[in-house]
Request: fold
Amino acid sequence: MSDTTFVPAPPLDYLHDGATLKSWLLTTDHKRIAILFGLSITFFFFIGAVAISIVRLELLTPAGDLVSDDTYNKMFTIHGIVMVWFFLIPSIPATFGNFLLPLMIGAKDLAFPRINLLSWYLYIGGAAFTVLTLILGGVDTGWTFYTPYSTMFSNSSVLTAAMGIFVVGFSSVLTGVNFIATTHMLRAPGMTWFRMPLFVWAMYATSLVMVLATPVLAMTLLLIMAERWFDLPIFDASRGGDPLLFQHLFWFYSHPAVYIMVLPAMGVASEILTCFARRRLFGYSFMVYALVAIAVIGFFVWGHHMFVSGQSAYANVVFSFLSFMVAVPSAIKVFNWTATLYRGSISFDAPMLYIFGFMGLFTIGGLTGLFLATVPIDIHVTDTYFVVAHFHYIMVGGSVSAFFGALHFWWPKITGKLYPERLARFAAITMFVGFNLTFFPQFVMGYLGMPRRYHVYPPEFQVYHVLSTCGAAVLGVAYILPLFYLIWSFRNGARASSNPWNAKGLEWQTPSPPPHENFLTPPIVEQPYDYQPADIAGGRDAR
Amino acid sequence: MSTAFLHPPFDTLERQHQAVSFGVWLFLVSEVLLFSGLFAGYGVYRELFPAGFLAAGRHTDIVFGTANTAILMSSSFTIAVAGRAARADLGRMAWWLLVVTFGLGVLFLVLKGFEYREDIANHLLPAPAFAVPVPGAQIFFSYYWIMTSVHAVHVTCGLIAVGRLIVISRNNLAWLSGSASEDATALYWHLVDVIWIVLYPLLYLVGRAHG
Reply:
């Protein structure tokens, strides 16, 4: 027997550990579920993109000449619903969070693998209702479902749309519960709380918001459905109801939801910046406290969406003050990222370009948020394109940039393949240019008084709309390009090593793509972000 | 304890139990937030329409409400004792206590159904022929119907969970003490009970003190 020369084959990686459709649809492997989520949200991203393309084309001319006003309303509504609940909310957490959280803390899987699969099926259930809404002719209330229009007057498919969001909400809650329990229960020996990567902290803070805010939205939508379906008076002012109660309940969820979208992006930024600057994260513990502070304070600022709703002046002052407060930890994060770059040896690979884009655009979005937190300015620009530009700078400029940064940074880990770097840099720069061309003119026209959600507008705004539509076309190219070269890379790309970026973090200590059980040997936990710049000699202080 | 109940990604049964219990608690927090959306609305409208709420509160059926409160609290008692019994190796007793819990849950829903029938017959469904002509009374009953029906959905989910325990452990009593399912189910069942204990005064006792 030649036992001594027998070398066991390395275990199959998670992509090849079962090839049938069933092995994917019934998987409890967090990595495969992440892929399922990734494919699903990509599908919805393109539905939302098509809807808004029709809107942007309509706005090329001041007259309503491409689609009817009804169709226009349905298009921006489906764009909002799909992009918020079926792309942005699950985007980074359900894909990269799902894939990376166990790897980053050295666990074999999430704490509740079957619940994790259930999260995906709930997402698909909610998605089915949303597709049904489209088939039934769409919904025209705007993504905010404001009463009394949504409950008493809209003739579109409000019930199925609300049901879709109601169902997908439970997917969020279960993902949040799973992430929090995993972080508490399954950290590898040595992985103390203050050694956790910022991405894990970001997932933790995001999960807290998901678990605490989402059920309130679920109940609010249930009330909408009850009023619309059974004619129960709840928000109907003619029977004593208060439509403002709806707005309070809705924004109690939907403002924290902004932080569900942007906290994960902040986590991604901290991972990528440190790697491509070869620096320790500046002020690690402050970064952690800032994440948690944003998550907590974010619960108490919802009234800034209601400055012109007729709520009391005292409420306005308090909500304005609290909205300024939430900018403080956000600013701490931006300053600390900047300080992290100081004396780093910076390389401009595609993930880093996306994160530079994220930093700049998030900062503009955040600063214009301060304008909007100031009651007199908010009264002037409420419901204008200024607001639209502001939140797109956060959600698209911030979150989507970080999503693409994460996609490129962890692509070699997820697929085991390298992507074409030059094309990727080109796409990253195109995205930045296209984004600014799309949304910066919207700040200007909003400030000049162009209201949102109008499909006919005075001709003096046309130049801004034309710029914006051109920008959207550029942005479209920047989104489609990675779709093609990443598919190419998955099929034909060069093999990636286990750590192509020479990055720190436990996920880089295992093969790419990782095996089903994540680690073949127990990972070794070090200080987080223990990078040593090539051109700096010296001890710990120099790092 | 045997390792037959140990599932990946856990290395020890103790840790797994901790995680399940912790996860269920987190989920219960989210359930409380779900109902708190209703409690907030109830509070706002009671402040706006004190007379309407007092008048409407006298029209809910106190007999059904009180009986159901007693039934649900008893079921919480039986499921709690079932857990203790399972851990004390009294598997058969634990199993029967779960059956009693299940029966009490069903009884709750049956009584609730009869109550709903009477409510509809008494014109307590907010509609043009509504029985209480006081402003705000219809809103009170909107909340009555939504709160009790959402709660009934939770009781139904709880019954499915308890039914699952009964079916799986019928020929495998060791599973009751070994797996974390009994604890998790009991925690959820208690929450359903606790929510009802808040609903009971809000919906059945309000207005009664004024004769």
Q: What stands out?
A: Chain A has a mean pLDDT of 94. Chain A is about 65% helix and 0% strand. Residues 124 and 168 of chain A are 8 Å apart (CA to CA). Residues 69-105 of chain A form the longest helix (37 residues).
